[in-house]
Amino acid sequence: MTTWFIILLIVISTLKVVLASPPTFVMEWLLNKFALHARLSEETTTITLRGKRLEGEEKTQFIHHFNEATFFDRYDEYDVPAENTGTPLVINTKKGKMDVLLDVYIYSDHVDVFKQDNKKAAAYSLRSDKLQDVPMPLAGNGNFI
User: Fold this and answer.
1) Is 71 in contact with 36 (CB distance < 8 Å)?
2) Digit-coded pLDDT (tens) for 66-91
């Protein structure tokens, strides 16, 4: 009887410690699953500007800067800025099994992202000095892109 009690006590204590402080890989998986600003991978991502694909070093550099950008603010559906008149970078990527479409508008002081997947749409703003200074064939209204 005492042996079973000790074993049960050890199992419950171990379970309590694991649930109270899960391993790092479990926390990373949970955070990435529900992150609004998800990381892009080069293999599953295509980036187009005015119908022309970005390839090679330009694509790699943009993805790196996009992944390193800091999430700044999420827009409510009634709060979406009306200034998005420039030409967006269109990013097609996959998040798990879902296709995700991102329209990225780059300005001198922030980056607006409009994310659309099978189930929902969201708009948010990023900050990234490197991304805001990306040299590309640019157009229009003080926008970089």
Assistant:
1) yes
2) 888 888 888 876 566 666 567 788 99
In angstroms, the Cα distances linking 100 to 23, 46, 89 are 29, 11, 14
User: Quick one: 48 and 10 in the same domain?
Assistant: no
DSSP states of 51-101: TEEP-HHHHHHHHHHHHHPEEEEEEPTT---S---SPPEEEEEEETTEEEE
55 & 111 share domain: yes
The reported pTM is 0.68
Residue 99 sits in which domain range?
37-145
